[in-house]
Amino acid sequence: MKYIVSDGMKSEMRYVELSDAQLWKLIIEKDKVAFEQLYRRYYSPLLAYALSFCNDEDMAKDCIQDLFVKLFVSETLSSIEYIRAYLYKSLRNLLLDKSSRAVGSVSLEENMVADFLVEDVELVRLFEKEDDYLEKSRLLMNAYNQLSVNQRNAIYLYFIKEFSWDEMAVSLDINPHSCMNLVARAVAKLQRMVVGEKKK
Description:
Layout: H1 7-16, H2 20-28, H3 32-51, H4 57-73, H5 83-101, H6 108-111, H7 133-145, H8 149-160, H9 165-172, H10 176-199
Helix pairs in contact: 2-3, 3-4, 3-5, 4-5, 5-9, 7-10, 8-10, 9-10
Family: Belongs to the sigma-70 factor family. ECF subfamily.
Pfam family, one: Sigma70_r2
Organism: Parabacteroides goldsteinii CL02T12C30
């Protein structure tokens, strides 16, 4: 059986194969198909990221829409090295801005809690004792929730989203070496808290 593929489908299939950097270059040139592809590629991951520290799904979706509308209408887009990190950082800033403008609301920065599932936690591998998996998970989640906002965000981006140090630096607006230190201190703190909790 032969499948007929239209020129439009062939063109769209080629865009799927492009890297983020290639798409970004086309977006700067106002290529709508490249823009749509970037939107499709990042909508779900950005929504998951937003919901990791914002419980308001409507606000998260609105901020993603706002982010992509701003990109689409911008006349000043320039070449950037880490597109994924740029999108995450921009979304985080939009969420913080929108939450700070909400009347009578608590600052989103104060309420940021990465709400990831225990099944997704790569950190459990850091604790290779013979304890029961569920007990380790409970201890780890308790310790994780005691980390600072920056430490939780760094752990989330590095271990869950697998950002490189350079991508994290762009997203967190600090240098790569500071990212390494932040993650190392967070992991050390997690280990101390989990070990301390086990001894009780």
